[in-house]
Amino acid sequence: MPAPAQSHPIHLTLANGLRVSLRHAPRLKRCAAALRVAAGSHDVPLAWPGLAHFLEHLLFLGTERFPASEGLMAYVQRHGGQVNASTRERTTDFFFELPVSIFSDGLERLADMLTHPRLTTEDQLREREVLHAEFIAWSQDAAAQQQVALLQGLAADHPLRGFHAGNRDSLPVENEAFQQALRAFHEHFYQSGQMTLSLAGPQPLAALEALAQRFSDALASGPLHPQSAPPPLMPDQARRYQHLAGNHLHQVICCGAPREALEFLCTWLNASAPGGLLAELKTQQLVTALHASVPYDFAGQALLIIDFTVETQETAQIETLLDDWLSFFAHSDWTSLREEFALLAARQQQTQGALALARNYSEALSEPAVAALKAMLDSLHLPASQHRWQPAPNNPFLRPPVKEERAGLIRGQTSAHRGLRTFAQDRSRGRKDASALTFSHALGNDGDEGALYLQWRFNAPAPELGSTLQALRENAGQAGVELSCEAMGNDWLVKMIGLQQPMPAVLEALAHALNQPQASARAPVPMIAIRALLKALPGCCANATGTGEAPASWSEARWQGLGIGLTATCETAIKAAAARLPGQPAIIDHDVADLAGQHLWRAVKTDTSEAALLLFCPAPTRSLADEAAWRLLGHLLQAPFYQKLRVELQLGYAIFSGVRQINGQTGLLFGVQSPTASLEDIVEHLHNFLRQLPTLIEHSADVGNQPLAEQFAPDTLPTAQSAELLWHAHLAGHPSDYLPQLQQRILACNQSDLLQAARQLQDAAGGWRYVANGPRTID
């Protein structure tokens, strides 16, 4: 199968100074925009820390033309797209993704909110409380505070050392001087000359350019204002320092190499292959992980931070080996590494979705960038390398597999072995239940992308193998296959989604890894409470059996799989590779427990004092009629839920609702993390909101059948989303035409169906599952 053609962006500058990047990619099913404003936290007057982030929030609160209920955030969410924004040191980004047919509506809303924000005092006071809640969470987050401490080695007058989060004290909304500064910042930076628009989609370049021009015409015009240059990163001629806190050792290197050069270096620093730095550090039991990154670059300044997760407080040997490897790398021939790096970049662009493509600002590794990297490494005055390092090997999944010279023979055999091969294969096939691995052509099978789902069931809690498969996941991801694994009670699920060509080889490697002795699981990575609960939710919903006293046995496990959208050639290769998977192929039942009327509570420990809670409410049955009605109900209540709990009650910053599917079971999921409310308060607010559902439905002139149904059109759904829907449909026993049937059911739903679904939800007809970071203290 040939690799997809690479999409090269076209760069333009329009008459009003707006810089535009256009990327035509026919394989895409959606279109995306990324708007970058050349202004960030470090461009704010010193008197008002957090002003840039505050303004970013305010821009989403509606305009005279598009109130919040019709603004970009609500519009994109209503049509099943993606939308967000981010304020960094010297840039602010706004980005969204939508179906092609309504993409221009999103651009129209983005231009209007950037140009005509309301900035009312009422909005500002309310949104300041949201930022203050974020500030409280940030001040209590260990990783965030570690980052603050890490940067204390920089020059005292560099803005990276300053406070930029924003809170009640730094955002005095009532102060007229603050209001003048807020409006001056918007007028100065939020205009055409200060912006770059990136569009990616399947439309012809001429159509993308026309969209960009229309967007440009709606902006306030203005020139590019150069941003002030920062002071030196470090005093005197210092270039680097290290910082040790807990089990993390950070090596910080300040330099002037461009980002693309440093990303090239990080790629090989992070490589986990034998002969590299990480492998040697693990062999000597000095570290368990290494991550090199470039968190900051601006105006010829850059920070390279190498984060070692250490197993010892004696760090001298780590620094010695790092310098030795850097010296080896500096004096190596980079020809093959540059070729591999170019292949990695090309494959990334060949497989990224619309939003990722629009936000891809990576530059090709140029000769000046290579020279700058060599100069940076020379400036470290590294001693000659003494260790026998090995260059990182090529990613085995980036190139087509080598065909066997003698078709039909096992590697190493001759034609004399043909009878033996047939017997061995027949015997193997006799042990395998072919019906356990099935293939769906609901998406067609003539594309470059596809998906493979594999699920094992054990007689004990499934093993956690994330760290064991880390290197395989990295190589697969670089080759365009997203490989993920998840333990859910006694089940273990593997997903492969992306480019078909490497999938059989990735599956072969997975089978080989699972047939080897497994290393013990590492301690989980700390995460914010609501994310920890989301990770635990599938396991909490699983009908686990067994005591867990005996370890899960791969040889006794049963497994089943589903391939989606794969070509016949890929299917054949997948079947051959699957024969080597551990365990026994079998049809696994996914009966769900009858929880009608029950309210179950599961407490999960998290590293925070803030209250966090999920409420998962499964539909009473797996029927398509119930799924359609509950999906429409979730679609209708998403915006009111956010409005009530986040905007009006101001419970916190992590508040969401939506449809969730777990092992083929569809339900509504509500999530809240609050720095001020208790778990009891959150539960009471949820109950109050759900009591109002009938009134909400009765007062809705349009319940949104059409935009919701359009979200399930196969020709507009990205492969990952289609595959996830079809996998759960497979588990639920739905027919192959599940997607069109679901669309029809959604379109047919009426107000009476929604009221019935609301009553089912209120009565816990499918049960309620609470997952919280504390015990239940109320009925």
UniProtKB/TrEMBL annotation:
Record-level GO cellular component terms: cytoplasm
Organism (species): Pseudomonas trivialis
Coiled coil segments of this chain: none
GO MF, one example: metalloendopeptidase activity
Domain Coenzyme PQQ synthesis protein F C-terminal lobe: 449-562
Family statement drawn from the similarity comment of this UniProt entry: Belongs to the peptidase M16 family.
Alphabetical list of SUPFAM superfamilies matching this protein: LuxS/MPP-like metallohydrolase
Top-rank taxon: Bacteria
Protein's UniProt name: Coenzyme PQQ synthesis protein F
The Peptidase M16 N-terminal domain, residue ranges: 19-142
